[in-house]
Write a structure and sequence with these properties.
With about 210 residues, the protein is an alpha+beta fold. Helices cover about 25% and strands about 30% of the residues. It contains 7 helices and 13 strands. The strands form 3 sheets. The chain has a 6-stranded mixed beta sheet with strand order 6-7-8-9-12-13. The protein has a 5-stranded mixed beta sheet with strand order 1-2-3-4-5, with helices on one face. Strand 7 and strand 8 form a beta hairpin. The chain is globular, with a radius of gyration of 16 Å. The structure holds zinc ion.
Length: about 210
């Protein structure tokens, strides 16, 4: 699997480009900003983007989605429980002192156990409410990799004090779904460095019993 991780925008959201080495089909996850840089990487690997997947509707993850859709023709996918947050992008922009990206249109909702695909690559959608109601993680079982959005970070977890957040729900998502994955799974969080499920199970202060 081709996998580029590019931190984008002022909040350095990790945008992932995952591609099939044979068919050159790709999925872009969380194109929050710097779409020109993302397109340059897509061109460098000679990829064709088939899906644009948003882990949750915070502006730093979704802000560049429409520009990427216009450039690639790929549909934008987001869990429907975050549609309300998506309508508040101008409010989110104001909180952060950023320019509002305009209206973002969703082509399809992604729910529990749906698959995202690029060539032979298959990612399973895990609905992990808590950071937001519609937060999802994408699990690539063959590659043993989890794109975690803002649900799990190296040494921390997503904040739950913003609209739609719930500490109880994120703890439920983490213990029942995320920690059910094998220890060797590499976790690519929405911000900051990669980690593994095993490392977080052992050392993350929020996940200790
Ligand atoms: Zn977020």
């Amino acid at each position: 699997m081709i996998h580029e991780i590019l931190p984008v925008g002022p909040l350095q959201c990790n945008c992932s480009i995952v591609g099939d080495e044979t068919t050159r089909e790709a999925i872009v996850i969380d194109p929050g900003d710097q779409i020109d840089d993302i397109l340059a990487l897509i061109k460098k690997h000679n990829l064709q983007v088939k899906q644009i997947v948003i882990t949750h509707a915070h502006i730093d993850h979704v802000g560049g989605a429409m520009k990427l859709r216009a450039a690639t023709g790929a549909p934008i996918l987001l869990n429907q429980n975050d549609y309300a947050l998506l309508k508040m992008l101008d409010v989110q922009a104001a909180w952060l002192g950023m320019k509002a990206p305009g209206r973002v249109e969703i082509d399809q909702s992604l729910g529990q156990a749906d698959l995202v695909k690029a060539g032979s690559l298959e990612g399973q959608v895990i609905h992990t409410p808590g950071h937001t109601e519609g937060s999802i993680c994408i699990y690539f079982p063959l590659e043993r990799e989890l794109i975690a959005g803002d649900t799990l970070f190296a040494g921390s977890i997503g904040r739950t004090d913003l609209p739609g957040g719930s500490f109880e729900k994120i703890m439920g998502s983490l213990h029942n779904q995320v920690l059910a994955l094998p220890d060797e799974t590499v976790v690519v969080p929405g911000h900051g460095p990669n980690t593994t499920i095993g490392e977080e199970r052992e050392t993350n202060p929020f996940l200790q019993k």
